[in-house]
Amino acid sequence: MRFLPLIWKKKTDSAFFGEFLDHAASALLAALFVTAFVEFPFQAHSLEIKSLALLPVLFSYFRWKNLGLSVVLGVLAHFILSQFT
Amino acid sequence: MIRKMSERASWYRGFLASFSIALGYIPAGITFGMLAQLSGWGRLETILTSGCVFAGASQFAMISLGSSLFPGMVIPLFLNLRHVVYSLFVASRFRLQKPHIVAFGLTDEVFALAQKTKDERFLWGLETGAYFFWVLGTTVGVFGGDFLASYHLFVSSLLFSLTPLFLVLLLPTLRGSRIWSAILGGAIALFCHTLGYTSLGILLAGVLSPLLVMEGKRRKGRERPE
C-alpha cells in the first residue's frame, strides 16, 4: 500500500496535485498531532500535563528552531510535571 | 568519491534525525513486546512481526484480533490506508531510486520528518534509524518488559515525545491557506478519534481538508473580480 503510489508518480504530476499535497501535509500533521495529544478515555489531568509540557516545546522551537532539543525538553517537562502534580 | 562521501553524510544525517523518533518508538516498541508476550505470542514471533510489518497501529490491532485470520488481514489494511497519502507526497517530492525501500520504512513519523528534506539518502538513514529503534524497543519489551513496567511514569513521558514532534513539524507549515487545512484536518481527525476511528480520521483529514480549502480558495477567487 505504501509502495504503489511511488510507482504511479508519473501519472499524478500536476499543479493541482502539488497544491493538494502541500495542503494535505499540513492537514495530516495537524491530524497526527491532535490524535497524539488527546487520549481516550479522556483524562483532564493528563491533558493538563501535556498542555503545560508543550509550553517549553513552543518556547524552544521559536527560540532555537531545533527539533531534537524541543522534543527532549517536552519529554523532560512531561516527566517532571507527572512527578510533581 | 566526493559524491559517495556526501551520500554517506546524508544517510548519517538522516540516521541522527531519527533519534527524535526513537524517543517515542522505543517505549512504544517495548509496550508492543510486552503486550504480545502477555497475549501468548512467542518471542521470535513478536520480534519478527516488528521486523516484517513495521507498522505500530496494525501490530497492536493484530494482538487484539488474536488468531482470527480475515480481520487480522483486513483491519491492518484499513488502518494503513493513510500511508497512500504519505507515499503520494513522497513520490511527488523525491526523485526515488529505490521506491521499495522508501515504501517499507514510511511511517507517520518518518512522513512528518520527510517534510524537511528532498534527499532520498537522508530518508533512508531516517527510515533505518526508525526501523532499528522500533525493533530494538520490541526486543527490549520481549526480554525485559516486566522490569521496565515498574518505571511507568518514565515510559509514559517517553511516549509523549511524539506529540511535541508532530507539533514542531506542523508549525513551519502553517502559512497562508495551509492554516485552514491544518485546522480542518485537526477537527476531522479529532471528531473521528472521539468516535474511535483514529486511523480513518487521519486519512479523511489528509484527503478532505485540502479539497475543501482549495475549493474555498477557488470560489473566493471567482467572487473577487465581481
Textual characterization of the structure:
The complex is a heterodimer of chains A (85) and B (226). Chain A is mostly helical. Chain A has one domain. In chain A, 84% of the residues lie in helices and 0% in strands. In chain A, helix 3 runs antiparallel to helix 4. Chain A is elongated, with a radius of gyration of 18 Å. The model of chain A has no long low-confidence stretch (mean pLDDT 83). Chain B is mainly α. Chain B has two domains: 153 residues, no CATH class; 53 residues, no CATH class. Helices cover 81% and strands 0% of the residues of chain B. Chain B contains 13 helices and no strands. The longest helix of chain B is centred in the middle third of the chain and has 30 residues. The radius of gyration of chain B is 19 Å and the shape is globular. Chain B starts with a helix and ends with a helix. The mean pLDDT of chain B is 85. The chains are: A mainly alpha (85), B mainly alpha (226). Chains A and B meet through helix 1, helix 2, helix 3 and helix 4 of A and helix 2, helix 6, helix 7, helix 8 and helix 10 of B.
